[in-house]
Amino acid sequence: MPLLEVDEVVVRFGGVTAVNGATFSAEERRITGLIGPNGAGKTTCFNVITGLQRPTQGTVRFDGRNVTRTPVHRRSHRGMARTFQRLEAFGSLTVRENVRVALDIAGGLRGVLRSQTAQIDHLLERVGIAGYADERADSIPTGTARLLELARCLAGDPRLLLLDEPSSGLDEHETDAFGELLLALAAEGRAIVMVEHDMDLVMTVCDEIHVLDFGEIICSGSPGQVRSDERVQRAYLGQSDEENTRDDLAPFEATTTIPAIGVG
Ligand SMILES: Nc1ncnc2c1ncn2[C@@H]1O[C@H](COP(=O)(O)OP(=O)(O)OP(=O)(O)O)[C@@H](O)[C@H]1O
């Protein structure tokens, strides 16, 4: 049974249908990609999964239980963790203090009063930002701040990790290391769902990919299946030049086939 099941979810904002009957799942030990053009409904799906957005219709199940109406903090307590596109760390605290706060909160839920320095160091090393431990969070590069968000998520030892554009701000070398980290986190038994615009990363690490377009899942499958799907290629190429300004879409402008984006 998948750890996460999203079933026929619809989200309407007035006249806008942001998500339209989306059905997909995520399993432990696997990395699931959720991709699609700007405004396709990816972040809204994350909001529904984590409880920030009540769906107009549909169901979310986590570990077999219907959590569609479960508040955010209870879903978190049951093992969901999420990073945001917008950075959420406390800017005036150091990187180390940010991780300590996250560990204290997670530990508090388990009755542990004070986090151990070794735990903090371990998390910082794990995500590769130990060198920034004593810097203020608002002074570190964006990519590093995203890794700090991940460290804060891992403080709660989540079973399901939802990552919203986690690699943005990382250079090529850092992105490669990040991909390795994701694979290691999944191998430990976690389910990872990732909204990501770096197609090289998505195609390299994801076991399964769901493609959203105008709120609908238009394709689900392996990276190979998604790359060769005509509807996916049309969805990306269909954007006007004005809309099509994001770096992530640039590779699709040069070619009509996804395999030519430098993967595999
Ligand atoms: N609170 C809201 N009120 C009204 N419309 C919204 C709201 N949130 C999202 N939308 C609309 O819903 C659609 C889906 O938005 P969403 O942010 O989920 O897309 P996305 O795929 O995450 O986009 P991006 O890749 O640009 O982050 C868009 O048309 C957006 O304008």
From TrEMBL:
<keyword id="KW-0547">Nucleotide-binding</keyword>
<dbReference type="InterPro" id="IPR003593">
    <property type="entry name" value="AAA+_ATPase"/>
</dbReference>
<dbReference type="InterPro" id="IPR051120">
    <property type="entry name" value="ABC_AA/LPS_Transport"/>
</dbReference>
<dbReference type="InterPro" id="IPR003439">
    <property type="entry name" value="ABC_transporter-like_ATP-bd"/>
</dbReference>
<protein>
    <submittedName>
        <fullName>ABC transporter ATP-binding protein</fullName>
    </submittedName>
</protein>
<dbReference type="InterPro" id="IPR032823">
    <property type="entry name" value="BCA_ABC_TP_C"/>
</dbReference>
<feature type="domain" description="ABC transporter">
    <location>
        <begin position="4"/>
        <end position="239"/>
    </location>
</feature>
<keyword id="KW-0067">ATP-binding</keyword>
<dbReference type="InterPro" id="IPR027417">
    <property type="entry name" value="P-loop_NTPase"/>
</dbReference>
<keyword id="KW-0813">Transport</keyword>
<dbReference type="Pfam" id="PF00005">
    <property type="entry name" value="ABC_tran"/>
</dbReference>
<dbReference type="GO" id="GO:0005524">
    <property type="term" value="F:ATP binding"/>
</dbReference>
<dbReference type="Pfam" id="PF12399">
    <property type="entry name" value="BCA_ABC_TP_C"/>
</dbReference>
